């Protein structure tokens, strides 16, 4: 456990990003791949990220989430024009034998949905912060972003969550 | 059928329509099962904190449930979790599915108590099959739970195993029905004949 915590801090300090391979061969034969966390994004404790750029915010799930979920085979997303509320579910992903809710980190109106995900849901695994984006939202209360975690806080949150289980 | 199941890929639609077999799409993930009078369903609906130190993700939940069933099937038929199925040896007798929300999760298993060989022909060989299936036909892949354990023994042992983790009290089904909120609308639903016919046509 201590070794894993040390390696996790080291990996993050070196900004090592891992692909979604479940087992990475490192010098110490660690069995867990450490998740990427990007600076400049905000994070919810249900493992979604939001990138606020001007009038639009882009939302997806984090590398930590996709790694724990496994291979995503199906994604259910809302229609543009619908609304999302902070902390409430807006869609779901199917992986392994489970559907897992995705919750919105902020409230607002859905302005765009990533249509590529219906044909290639695996983009969520291979590119959770870029090609695997899920929805774009016009935020209704931009101050909600302040209640979310920054990258350092979220990294610590993930480490603590993984360590306690 | 699981939430994302495509009828044309999973079912022999013509036979299903001819024989008027009801098709239900449930809200959990996973595959397609034939439900008959013998099928045993065991469902766990848990708050996030109900099982200490359990992360609410598919594999940890699957692992937790399989350790519970290991107690049930101890010494019987070489039980284990194989990929996401419950097997005796390499024959599947239990299929699993889950749904995970922010604060709760459901894990349910349909146990293949017995099966009618003819009914199996309603199912196609799924595109996404576990590696251990090794392209076996349905009949070579599955086995009957009744060949391993009496039904009452299975139920008693499942209750016993669950009691090692939770405090249990029995409740009548009617009591659950009457306390269901009036506005609750189940998302699990029957597929209509029109939907099945459209799927059959699209396949051609």
TrEMBL record, chain A:
One of its GO terms (biological process) is glycine decarboxylation via glycine cleavage system. One of its GO terms (cellular component) is glycine cleavage complex. Residues 56-138 form the Lipoyl-binding domain. It holds the Pfam family GCV_H. Binds 1 lipoyl cofactor covalently. PANTHER family: GLYCINE CLEAVAGE SYSTEM H PROTEIN (PTHR11715), GLYCINE CLEAVAGE SYSTEM H PROTEIN 1, MITOCHONDRIAL-RELATED (PTHR11715:SF27). This is Glycine cleavage system H protein. Signal peptide: none annotated. The glycine decarboxylase (GDC) or glycine cleavage system catalyzes the degradation of glycine. The H protein shuttles the methylamine group of glycine from the P protein to the T protein. It comes from the Eukaryota.
UniProtKB/TrEMBL annotation, chain B:
InterPro entries: aa-tRNA-synth_II/BPL/LPL (IPR045864), BPL_LPL_catalytic (IPR004143), Lipoate-ligase_2_inactive (IPR053264). Pfam families: LplA-B_cat. This is BPL/LPL catalytic domain-containing protein. Gene3D superfamilies: Bira Bifunctional Protein, Domain 2. It comes from Gossypium raimondii. SUPFAM superfamilies: Class II aaRS and biotin synthetases. Residues 1-170 form the BPL/LPL catalytic domain.
